[in-house]
Each structure stands twice: as structure tokens, then as C-alpha cells.
Amino acid sequence: MWKMDDLGKFLLPLRQAVLLKRTWIVGLQREQLGLSSSDDEEEDGRSASGSMSDKEYTDEEGSGNESGPSNLDENYAKEIMDDGDEESAEDYPEDCSDEDDIETSSSFDSHLARSLMKEEVDNLKDPKWKYKWEMPENNIILSKWTGTGEPISKEPGKEMDASLKEKIHKNWKNINKASASSATNSSRENFFFSLFNTYRDIMHCNKKPFYVKGGEEDSIIMDAYLLHILNHIYRTRELVIKNDTKLNKLQGGTKEVLGSDAYLDQGFTRPKVLFLLPLRSIALRVVLRLIQLTPLTNKDNVEHLDRFTEEFGGINDEEHNKKDLSSQGRSKPADFRTLFGGNNNDHFVLGIKFTKRTMKLYSDFYSSDIIVASPLGLVTKIGETEFDKEKDVDYLSSIEIVVIDHADVIVMQNWTHVNTVFDHLNLTPSKQHGTDIMRIRPWYLDGQARFYRQTILLGSYLNPDINALFNRFCVNYEGKAKLVSEYKGVLPKILLQVQQIYERFNPSSIIDADDARLDYFCKKVFPKIKDSIEGGIMIFISSYFEFVRIRNFLKSQNASFCLLGEYTKQSDISRARVWFFEGKRKIMLYTERAHFYHRYKIRGIQNLIIYSLPERKEFYPEVINMLDASRNMMCNVLFSCFDLLKLERIVGTAAAKRMLSSDKDMFVFS
């Protein structure tokens, strides 16, 4: 008789191993039932007699038992009975009865049940997306939705009424009633829910965030994706429990179990949803709202909530001072105080598990339904596996929905961490982790999980890194939908009468763009400022890579300069600001990330050189408005054709296109 531990030694491909196990169990069951091979020659050898135990869907740790609940020993069974959170069909009569078999198929069912043809898989491996339809976005000026495949509904109607599980929908209605939510908000929530419920990859990068005045729609969008995720989790759990119940009833000899694909309802591991969020304070906001939207009979049934609010809501004195949020920080802009007014730690990973009666925070990753993490937190976990072979991140193998919210804030951290996380999604796990491989969906075994994964990408602006991730990693067979926007620009927000001279340089390719920018600065810009007597020259730089290159160049020229970057020590920052204001240093290098995390008001600026345009459009007028109005002010901006996304947000889409297509290389705004 085959031993399961020996399978890996003989068959490396997991698909073959699973088929072998199914054949082995079929043979064993036939032998136990007294059947010969000729009694059932039409069966394909697939059996679903094993099942993930109820405990695997209710307790802190998975059982690791491959044989299902029927093979539990007495002590283990007693642990389940004592826990008080066991789940079964009897616990969910409204969700798990046989009447569900006649229920109209939901988008959840149709999305996960679809089998891809070989031609479809080949096309998804090297996709060439064609955006075929457009739909105006009435709530955002100069914006429209565009996508692949069939158009989404312009009027989603009552999508939430039809698609949400009854308990989730009822709870959502009660929340709206209690908060006196307007019909407009409900309509917008319904629209975004219907958009997410298509299971397409979604990119919305013109979202006004909650920390900006007028950012109420951010909360509407958050509610929509949280409802979509709750719906996905509850339907997943319902399907598993219902199949567990059916299999328990079929224990005893029926042939239906041996050959049916109806019980293939799981992935390699339990976690199905991944949130990537930049800060603990934002994770706190999302999880607390998730708790509100979860239809728990008693909100006190959230385990470890006090610990969570303390760890994600607290802020220590060191961090408080670091972010300039003390009395000195009260002069900062309102959006800064709101965003950085909480816990700004960007290193966290949290598991969340749902049972019938409770919602468990800090659950073991392998028994969790949702993982809430920062990119840095997950990358740290990934890095640990390289040094400790006992550790792994197989809990990322069966993620079916990824939500990246506030992607623009993550860009200010380190976007490469996001790419690293996506590189580790939906890989074949290194261990079995107690999963019943008789219940794994075929497309997991065929290495196609990434084609079923939905990615929801949300932020306040689009940049090449975000765009590249959406194009490269988002290969959902359902297709894509994204918001495309045009901009009016932010030039009217400049309060000073200062000429802004835009100078275009022309790199031959995107690979040469950084070198071409540095070469233009060294040959065209620096000769004009190197002999400056008065000083007061600020060079504003978007990326740390460019910051290092300019710093090294100025060192080579023995220039008088000081630094204000994201990694500059606080004592050095204070000294640099004084030196610059008093003219002891002629040039200051100032990065966008330093401005993002501190929003300093630099005094003594006479000549502003924007070496690279800021990603965040609001920073452009902020920095220009810091010029000393009592002196002769100057502002020079370098740009190329590869700066279109930044440029159009600042000068407006129409002006940006003219500037890039013009025969002239110099443009003046005042």
C-alpha cells in the first residue's frame, strides 16, 4: 500500500501526486466495499472522501490530519467539543442546507468554477490587454472607466441586494440606517461593490484619500471592498462546511464520492484575502470597519481586540517626535496631521480568522482567512525563510483577492517590497500544511491560481511603478477595469508671482532617462549656479537615487551644499536649515520623501530648481510658495517625455501634451 510520505519521493509534480493519492484512495475504498475494478470502470479515479475538518475552520491551529473528521482520535474530538466554536451544517441551517443547491449561481461560484482552456492560459501568460469599452465617472471630473471584456453595468441597480449573503446585507442595511447614510452614498457604494464583484482586476488611482478634505468617498470605496471580501470569505466557508456535511452523510459506500469533482472547494492553504496597507493607523481604520461590517451576534466576540487597538492605535513618544506631531507639528497642513496623527509604524503582519460566533485577531497565519500586512512586514517574513529553512510563507499560496489601498503612501516607502510580495503569491507550497489534497481545486494544482486572483489597486495618483504592477502581475482571466483621468493642474494654487521655467531634455529611451537628466543638469543648469554669491538655491529631488547622484556630483565640484533627505538625522537637519538660511551653505538638496514625512517650511529660498517633479501634485505649489518673496525669485523645472504622469497632474493634461509634442524645449508659466 502506498504511504503518503513516499509520494513526494516518486512524483515531483504535485498534480501527479494528487492524482495518485486519489487513485490510491479509490482503490482502498473499493477494497473496503468489496468492489472490483470492473464494478466501476467509468469512474475517473477522483475521490472526495476526505475533507478539511470542521476544526480547521474554527480553531486557532489546523489539525494537520489528512483523513478528515472521521479519523479524529477521542482526545482530539474532545478538544473540538470543548472549544465551543465548532461549525457544522446544523450550525448554519440557512446557509448550508440542500436548498442552496438550487440557488442562483453567484459571481463567486462562476468565477472559481471556471476551467480555463489551454489557449486561454497561453494568452494569459503573455497577455496583450485591449481596453474595449469606456464609461464616464460622473463623480470625478475628467475621468472615465475603461476595461477589457464585456462592459460593466452603468447602473448596477441592486447588485448588493442580489449578491451579498443575507446576514452581511442585513447588517450593512442596519449600519446605513443608524448612520443616516444618504441615497447618493448608497448608490456609490453599490457601484463600487458591483465593480469589485465582477472579480476583475481593478485600478483606481485618482481616489481622494480620507485624510484630505472632501475625501468622504474613500470611506465609501473601503466599505465596498470590505463587503466584497466578507462575501467572498463567507461563501468560501459556507461551501466547505456544506461539502463536509454532504461527505459525512455519504460515508458508507456510495460511488458518488469516488468520482465527483463537486467537492473540490479549497486551495493549498486557508488564507484567501491579503490586504497590503502602508501604516498601522490605516490598518486600524480598515480592521475596525471590517469588524463593524461583520455580522457578528455580539461585537464583544472579537478576540484580542484590546491588544489590537493598543498595538495599532498607540504611538510612543519617540515616534511622535520623529514625525513632528508635537506642539511644533500643529502648524503642519491638516492632511499631514490626519495621516500621521496615529501609529505610523510600517512593519506589521496580522492574521484574522472568522468562525460562526467570533472573529479572531492575531490568529495563526495558516488558520486565518485574511492577512493584513504592510509590504515591509511581509518582505521581512519572506526574508526569514532564506535563513531558516523551517520557516515558509506558504500561507500566500492560495490568496484569491489582494487589496492594495493607499498605494501612493506605499510609493513614499519602498514600492519594490510590493513587487517582492507579488513574486511570492500563488506559488506551490513547500509543505502540505494539513490540507486535504483531495479537495484542492484543479486550477491550483495546474499552477493557474494567479489567473484567478483578483487585485484591487487603490491610490490617489498613478505612477510608472503602480502601472507596471497592474500590467505585469494582474493577469486575472476575468479581465481588467481602470479609471483613466485628465487633470486641470495645480498652478492656480501658487500664491507668489514667480516665473516657472520648464526645460525639456530629450532622452533616447526610458533606460537612458536618468543619465540624460543628470547630464542636462551638469552641463546646462549647474554652470549657472556654481558661482552664485548669494546662495539660497534649493534643488528639489523626487527620488533617493537621484538625490545620491546629485550629492556625489556636488561633492566632486567642491560645491557649498547641505542635505535634507529622508535618512538625514534630526540633528543634521536642524543644522542644515540654519546654515542654509544664514547663507553658510549655498545649496540645499531636499527630497520629496523628506517633505512627505516632515512637511518642513524651509526659509531663505531664492532660487528653486526642481530636478525632478514631485509625485504628489500638492507638493509643487507648497514648495514654490516657500520662496522668499522679498527677493528676486526664480524657479526652473526639468522634465522629459517620460514624466507625463507627473507633469499632467501639475500643469494639466492638455498643457502637458502640448509641451511634450512641441518643437520648443522651454516653456514659461507665471
TrEMBL record:
A GO cellular component annotation in the UniProt record: small-subunit processome
Q: Where is the composition biased (Acidic residues)?
A: 82-103
Extent of Polar residues compositional bias: 64-73
Q: Which residues form the UTP25 C-terminal domain?
A: 492-669
What does the record list as GO biological process? maturation of SSU-rRNA from tricistronic rRNA transcript (SSU-rRNA, 5.8S rRNA, LSU-rRNA)
| Entry similarity comment | Belongs to the UTP25 family.
Q: Provide the protein name.
A: U3 small nucleolar RNA-associated protein 25
